[in-house]
Every structure is written in structure tokens, then in C-alpha cells.
Amino acid sequence: MLTQAWSPIGGITFYRDSGHTSTLQDPVIGGIAARHGRTPAQVMLRWHLQQGRSAIPKSTDPRRIAENLDILGFELTGNELAEIDGLDTGRRGGPEPTDIRLAAFGRPVPEA
Ligand SMILES: NC(=O)c1ccc[n+]([C@@H]2O[C@H](COP(=O)([O-])OP(=O)(O)OC[C@H]3O[C@@H](n4cnc5c(N)ncnc54)[C@H](OP(=O)(O)O)[C@@H]3O)[C@@H](O)[C@H]2O)c1
Fold first, then answer.
1. What are the phi and psi torsion angles at 27 (to 5°)?
2. Given a cut of 70, is residue 23 above it in pLDDT?
3. By alpha-carbon position, which residue is closest to atom 44 of ligand 1?
4. Is residue 11 part of a domain?
């Protein structure tokens, strides 16, 4: 089974009034990024990739789109993966997967 990451670089942590701390500002992720000479977004995307998740970040900025694709030239260690795993608060940013129902989330597509 392929798991898909929603908000793969933590968009949900800084959109709207989420009340979260932005993952882009997280000191653990920032420290790992500094060690590899990468950005926090690249570290989070590499973490997904190495753990086998599908991750499609959203960006409207061509420079950040290129940055988000450039994650093949470095590798996180097992300890670094575990450090990021350890940041899990158990708090869900999006809806519960079991709540995703056509009745609640379905939208008409006039062109279809
Ligand atoms: N949020 C959900 O609950 C949810 C649910 C289902 C599906 N999805 C889908 O998942 C995809 C992404 O989710 P998302 O938009 O919530 O969050 P995301 O991809 O984790 O974060 C997007 C945010 O990060 C910024 N960003 C992108 N690359 C960056 C970088 N390298 N450095 C710093 N900031 C960067 C973007 O701003 P700029 O555009 O200005 O770069 C945008 O504000 C979308 O296609 C969405 O439709 C989301």
C-alpha cells in the first residue's frame, strides 16, 4: 500500500489559524537541514521519500518548486529519520481518513 502525505512539508501547520508551530521553523528539522546543507522543506521531502510515502508539495514559486524536486543528492541517516519521527505530536492537521466521504467532500465538476 502506498501512503500519501497530506501537507507534506507542513503547509497545514502554517495555513490559516492552525495554532501549530510551523514545521519549516522546527529546530530539529533545521539542525538536520544545516548538517546536510539543505533546506527544511528538502529534509521533510527526503524523510517521506526514504519511508516510502507519496509526497506532492504545493508551491507557486518556480525556485521553491525546483528546490522541492532536488532531493535525490543526499540521504538521511537512520538516526535522523528517527529524530523526525519523534516530532510526532499525534495531532492531526487534516480530517480523519474515515471521515472522507463523497457526501461531505464531493464537489460537482461542471466540465466533467
Ligand atoms: N492540507 C490538506 O489537508 C490536504 C489534503 C489533501 C490533499 N492535499 C494536497 O496536498 C498538496 C500539498 O498540501 P498543502 O498545500 O496543504 O501543504 P504543503 O505542500 O505541505 O505546503 C505548501 C506551503 O508551503 C510553501 N512552500 C512550498 N515549498 C516550499 C519551500 N521549499 N520552502 C518554503 N515554503 C515552501 C507553499 O508556499 P508557496 O506556494 O508560496 O511556495 C505553501 O504555503 C496539495 O496539492 C493539496 O491539494 C492537502
1. -65, -35
2. yes
3. 58
4. yes
Task: Please choose from 4, 9, 43 the residue to mutate so as to test ligand 1's pocket, defined by most ligand atoms within 8 A of CB.
Answer: 9
pLDDT digits (tens, 9 = 90+) for 44-66: 999 999 999 999 999 999 999 99
> What's the CA-to-centroid distance between 7 and ligand 1, angstroms?
5
12, 94 Cβ separation under 8 angstroms: yes
Q: Which domain holds residue 59?
A: 4-105
91 falls within a domain: yes
CATH number at residue 58: 3.20.20.100
User: Of the ranges 8-17, 21-30, 82-91, 101-110, which one carries the lowest mean pLDDT score?
Assistant: 8-17
Number of domains in the chain: 1
Helix (H) or strand (E) holding 84: helix 78-85
